[in-house]
Design a protein that fits this description.
six-stranded antiparallel beta barrel, 4 helices, 281 residues, Thrombin, subunit H
Length: 281
Amino acid sequence: MRIVATLACSLLALALPASASAIVGGTAVGAGSYPFVVAVGDTLGPDCGGTLITPTVVLTAAHCIVGHVGSPADLRVLAGSRAISADLPAEEAAGHVVGVTAVYVHPKFSAATMHYDAALLILARPVTGVRTVPLASVSPPAGSQVSAAGWGMTRAGGATSPGRLLSVGLEVGTARACARGNAALGTYFAPTMLCASNPGRDTCSGDSGGPLVARDNGRVELVGITSFGFGCAEAAHPGVYTRVSAIRGWALAQLARSAAATERLAALADATAAAVSPVAP
């Protein structure tokens, strides 16, 4: 969930029959659009979004899963679907439900300030047939057109939704507007955050962890992670996103360490298997 005027987040769970909700002022995502958006939760229903950045890795918000660092097996990721409700057409609800083997939260994440609100989920198996999205190395400047997608609430305080993936077009705000619009929360920190808004349009509760994307020379890049906001689509209160360029180095380094550890474990398993194999006569 995107945190709305509070820094508490309770991760519910993920089961296909469960209903969720959707972005404020958005439109339904068509086939082939935003294929990299995933739903994150456990066995009861979805609560957050995420972005597939490799076939085996999801980038999401740390506040969504910080309570599951020691229990990644409790988490589920739904990928390749435009719906999280079994009541919707099969062509929208089809997808892959994948387990999680490891959770890595940014070491500088603070639930009190929401700085570095980012986490990586290592999937139990690769997601096939679903396009991933690259991490942006540079943030878009103020005035840039971006878009977000998710299954969050259609209004602040909302309780129901169609359970269908929606997207919304937004504009990146200036650092001054971002800080002023979130002064009541006292958490805006430009080096690790950016904000975006559009009158009557916004991300909302349930969209946390989902993507904010932009086009760079025709290529779609992930520039932000939905994090928090003051209400939903409130005038002069733009939504706040983790700046991907600020956490990109950590993410790539963590993935390199994870890959190296996996290779070492595989080599150890091979060596152990060879050591116990019967010797041919």
